[in-house]
Amino acid sequence: MTSQTLAGHRLPTEIDTIAELEAYLNAALRLEHATIPPYLTALYSLHPGANSDARHLIRVVAVEEMLHLTLVANVMNAAGLRVDLTADDFVPRYPAHLPSGEIDFLVSVQPFSPAAVTTFLNIERPVKAPSESRRLLRRPDLGAGTVLAASPVDPSRCFYSIGEFYEEINRGLRHLHDRYRAEGRELFTGDVARQVTGEYFYSGGGEIVAVHDLDTAIEALTLIIEQGEGLGGGIYDGEGELSHYYRFQQLQLGSYYQRGDVPGRPSGPALDVDFDAVHPVAIDVALTDYPDGSPVREAAQAFNRTYADFLAHLTAAYDGEPQKLLEAVPWMFRLRDDIERLIRNPFPGRPGVHASPVFTRASEEWS
Known about the structure:
Elements: E1 2-6, E2 9-13, H1 18-44, H2 52-78, E3 96-100, E4 103-107, H3 114-124, E5 136-138, E6 157-159, H4 162-182, H5 214-229, H6 244-253, H7 295-318, H8 328-343, H9 362-366
Antiparallel strand pairs: 1-2, 3-4, 5-6
């Protein structure tokens, strides 16, 4: 551990080696991915023809989470690190734990509902630690469920917020860059051909940042923070788009934000939100919850295989074959079709409940 100066104080940074930077960036990959299953499940739980506003808002945020995943991968490749979305601990166990200031909340895979919207707001909430000494807090043993935004160096401690977690990575990047330079070395020596650039990224979810030095690395990670929480505490990000937190807050408050609005007081048109026009899918399901030999278990296994293949495909794109990201688009449609095949069918033995996708490594569920 070392220290550096910020705002007049000597502050510790846990990232003092390339191995610690790799651990932090892998934790960032897991964190960005962990939001996608809850968003996709809520999105596809919506009845066809209803909730058009909610459908659009959730879809936009889910696409931008894919952008965030890609930006973290670009930083890793620029630093000569390898990206692997198929690692044993990559897919979280739900409900997962995330910090919201001094306390934690649970992130579940669940249908669209007021509770789901509250969870989405907690995920994206703009929260800054009140002091440097409270940026990283010791947590009690939380038992089962993946703990996200924890320190990879000391997993018993979690960051005050996702924003503080990324701030730690930015500090670590600056520290390592300066130290490498002092030693006559370069931190960013990765092959530029491994970068995912705009020609490979299909999205309306913001501009991809090709990373080749400290400035572009900080730019990529700052974009992630701003798209989630807003720029400098405002409701818009650096590109003038509404941040994730305030997109979701529109669902809670029932109105769109428009230019000139202040946080918590959207004055635009009303939103189309109907919490009853939703498939009542089961929450945080494991494959073993489905009866052996049942059609829904077979459908869940099929989705599980599709999802595992999707992660393997993304790994190839982030590990030297960026052109494969274009081929990921059809995989997104396959995931949608597999999820819809599940959520439109009743859960055996659970009256009034529908089947739900299982997001985990296929080999883990089948062992």
